């Protein structure tokens, strides 16, 4: 094993601990609030029509501001951005926990999204510029990948415990101790190479176009879920998003100091990672959503039992990320980990297409979760590393932001697309089996439950297909091998600006 540079920061592993705590807090928040939503809706008297804004306000702010947040990290400094994001996220969480009106809740969730958009790319890019030796980098990204992949399931467990035994407000307040620990630890242990700063002027047209374009895209998918894909407003929002994002690409290709240097996404390996991670997230969001409802509504699990039922997936992800991905990343081409990992994940998802109202957890759900966890953990770990590998340190923030952007857009697509498919299949099943329900309440209830499961399995079939496409994209687009240097500079870029300089932390 090659030894780390003598200039390597002696606190780098302690720093990883606190960066991981911050990442866990952000990932937890994506699912912990879902468990608490029914209780919060009752207490705050949020209407059925408006409850989606508890989720959507966060997704819009987070997804829309990520590229800007990544650029701020490159310009202002990743450590400063990281700590600011932590403090702001904790403050927004306190506001959400203390919410007394729907508007206060929606505002708090939007603020959480704003500060998460600063925090998430700063955390990943700090790892990218701190761990530069290949085997250390593999280990660090293995830990980070396990948290990024398994944190959502941990959120379901923690959300269930807090909601059932304390109060829904604690699903917000719990972020405060996470943030305090991470801030104090970061102040003491996180050091950033000063040479990695990007001091070029801010691309304001790019900032505006990216924020409005990404917000429009994410909102289009959330609107499609509630209003329908062919509704006039939905089509108009998607059209606006397409025009804005196309304009963003044109602007970025022409300005001297772009918000998103196109070389970051046009690199074959990074582009393949962004595409495959985005598609994999579509399937993952579908799984969490449908399996949570299946266990609670169809099988009658409590919130705590539902959360615990996701533990095998967490174990699988940690094992896949730290024991398979991290160990093999320096020995095998990345596509031979990412592609097969996503394929194994799709086979786990395929098992879940066999769900019925009385399916056994031990013989169907458990093995499916283990396969999903192992496969996706193995795939996510080298993906996270490759997404920032070889990038100019001054672009590390924006390259990291693209990882999070692909996940957020994938999540929005997954929630809207798979929910729509499930709802249509459920409605069709009820219409076809209305005679079976009869007049008895028991008969109607049974048909309703069967219809729900039919909806879930129909959507999960689509998730299987999407994971297979993600596996194919990774296999055919990614060609990076252990020991490969980064891609050559894109034509037209200044050589000094594009030469990847991996500067050890000090």
TrEMBL record:
One of the record's GO molecular function terms: transmembrane transporter activity
Region of interest (Disordered), ranges: 485-506
TM spans (from-to): 15-37, 52-70, 82-105, 111-129, 141-162, 168-190, 202-221, 233-251, 272-295, 307-324, 336-355, 459-478
UniProt GO BP: response to antibiotic
InterPro entries referenced in this protein's UniProt entry, alphabetically: EmrB-like, MFS, MFS_dom, MFS_trans_sf, Sugar_transporter_CS
Keywords: Antibiotic resistance, Cell membrane, Membrane, Transmembrane, Transmembrane helix, Transport
UniProt organism field: Streptomyces oceani
Segments forming domain Major facilitator superfamily (MFS) profile: 15-483
Annotated localization: Cell membrane
Pfam family, one: MFS_1
Matches recorded under CDD domains: MFS_MMR_MDR_like
Name listed for the protein in its UniProt record: Puromycin resistance protein pur8
Gene3D superfamilies the record matches: MFS general substrate transporter like domains, Multidrug resistance protein D
UniProt superkingdom: Bacteria
GO cellular component: plasma membrane
Entries under NCBIfam families matching the protein: efflux_EmrB
Membrane topology: Multi-pass membrane protein
């Amino acid at each position: 094993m090659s030894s780390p540079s003598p200039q390597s920061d002696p606190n780098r592993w302690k720093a990883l601990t606190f960066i991981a705590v911050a990442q866990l807090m952000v990932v937890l928040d994506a699912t912990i609030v879902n468990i608490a939503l029914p209780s919060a809706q009752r207490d705050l008297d949020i209407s059925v029509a408006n409850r989606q804004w508890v989720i959507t306000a966060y997704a819009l702010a987070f997804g829309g501001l990520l590229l800007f947040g990544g650029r701020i990290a490159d310009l202002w400094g990743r450590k400063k951005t990281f700590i600011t994001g932590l403090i702001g996220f904790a403050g927004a969480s306190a506001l959400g926990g203390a919410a007394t009106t729907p508007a206060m809740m929606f505002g708090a969730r939007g603020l959480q999204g704003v500060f998460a958009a600063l925090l998430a790319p700063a955390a990943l890019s700090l790892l990218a510029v701190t761990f530069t030796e290949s085997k250390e980098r593999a280990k660090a990204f293995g830990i980070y990948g396990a948290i990024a992949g398994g944190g959502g399931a941990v959120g379901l467990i923690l959300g269930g415990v807090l909601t059932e035994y304390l109060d829904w407000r604690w699903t917000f307040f719990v972020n405060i101790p996470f943030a305090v620990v991470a801030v104090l630890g970061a102040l003491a242990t996180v050091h950033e190479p000063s040479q990695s700063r990007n001091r070029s002027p801010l691309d304001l047209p790019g900032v505006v176009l990216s924020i409005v374009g990404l917000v429009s895209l994410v909102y289009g998918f959330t609107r499609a879920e509630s209003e329908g894909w062919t509704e006039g407003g939905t089509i108009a929002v998607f059209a606006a998003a397409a025009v804005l994002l196309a304009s963003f690409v044109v602007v970025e290709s022409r300005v001297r100091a772009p918000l998103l240097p196109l070389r970051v996404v046009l690199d074959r390996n990074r582009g393949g990672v962004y595409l495959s991670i985005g598609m994999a997230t579509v399937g993952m969001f579908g799984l969490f959503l449908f399996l949570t409802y299946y266990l609670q509504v169809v099988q009658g699990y409590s919130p705590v039992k539902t959360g615990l039922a996701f533990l095998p997936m967490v174990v699988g992800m940690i094992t896949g990320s730290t024991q398979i991905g991290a160990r093999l990343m320096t020995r095998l081409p990345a596509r031979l980990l990412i592609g097969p990992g996503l394929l194994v994940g799709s086979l786990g998802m395929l098992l879940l297409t066999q769900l019925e109202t009385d399916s056994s957890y031990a013989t169907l759900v458990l093995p499916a979760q283990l396969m999903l966890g192992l496969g996706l953990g193995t795939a996510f770990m080298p993906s996270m590393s490759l997404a920032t590998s070889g990038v100019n340190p001054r672009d590390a923030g924006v390259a990291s932001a693209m990882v999070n952007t692909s996940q957020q857009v994938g999540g929005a697509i997954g929630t809207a697309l798979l929910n729509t498919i499930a709802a249509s299949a459920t409605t069709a099943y009820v219409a076809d089996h209305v005679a079976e329900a009869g007049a008895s309440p028991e008969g109607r209830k049974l048909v309703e439950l069967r219809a729900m499961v039919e909806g879930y399995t129909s959507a999960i079939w689509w998730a299987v297909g999407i994971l297979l496409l993600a596996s194919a994209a990774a296999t055919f687009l990614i060609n990076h091998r252990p020991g490969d240097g980064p891609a050559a500079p894109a034509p037209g870029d200044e050589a000094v600006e594009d030469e990847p300089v991996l500067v050890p932390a000090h």
